[in-house]
Design goal:
This protein is an alpha+beta fold. It has three domains: 57 residues, PAS domain (Beta-Lactamase); 104 residues; 146 residues, 2-Layer Sandwich (Heat Shock Protein 90). The chain contains seven helices and ten strands. The strands form three sheets. The chain has a five-stranded mixed beta sheet with strand order 5-7-8-10-9, with helices on one face. It has a three-stranded antiparallel beta sheet with strand order 1-2-3. A two-stranded antiparallel ribbon has the order 4-6.
Length: 327
Amino acid sequence: SSQMDKLPYILEQLKDGKHIERMEVIFQRRDGVRKAILLTVSPIKDSVGQIIGASTIAYDITEIKKAEERLERYAVELERANEEVKQFAYIVSHDLRAPLINLKGFAAELRSALDVLDSAFLEAMPHLSKDSRQSAEMSLKEDIPESLDYIDSSASRMDYFVNAVLRLSRLGRREMIFEPLNLESIVNSVQKGLAHQIEEKQIKITVNPLPEVMGDRTSIEQIVANILTNAVLYLDPARPGRIEIGGEKLDDETIFYIRDNGCGIAEEDMSKVFAPFRRAGRYDVKGEGLGLAYAQTLAYRHGGSIRCKSTKNEGTTFTVTLSNHPE
């Protein structure tokens, strides 16, 4: 059986000598299984133009329809996840930041109160025993100020993390302006920004021919800067630093790589490479472990990704893949 409501329409169209192009109908087989069919029906005419039949081409599109339904479900789930991220960013920016501001504010008030106590202590000193005087002086001059410094630095660090999470959240929502970009020009610009470190460490950078990329300028600059900066920072001081950059344009995507002969990353640390606030490799390098998380998020926004291949004590290669038709 079939969708009978469409049968009169099909017959009417054929009667008028019209073609039916790519009409979707649902057929139910005798075993009860329903199939989605794409029909193209054309009238067959005799030598004098009379319609004597019809030719039908039918495609079983059941699996395609199922795939479309899955995609629709994924889109709904993705939209819900995006809303959850926005809500999380709101919570971070308001519910977490307010206590931090209070904490720093009260710590500042305690410092002011400590100055008052200090003055009072000087007046009271002659009336205290030696042990009491030493104990009070230790608390006022060392213990309390040290604790306040710890509170202040911890609150500042937490505030940094809050801001970092917000920046990461905004990267996923910032409007992108896609345009053809000269990748070689962007690499040269980033190199100039790192000129002091490159000269100081006597690093040799080889830039092979680079393709044009379709991307958001600020985003591509950030991707290149984060990866190239890491390559410079994590070179092995025991051997001359070498960095190689190259790429190629394919039919659907553009690929470029940044390869170094630095310290490399241990296999057990590879899972940390793109994770926010996680560090892979040497820990004596300053940073909070966010640069590559930002870069990966921006690559995703370009319909691409970043892959990392590394061997401990030999070097690392980051390969960036970007769609030629980002949306």
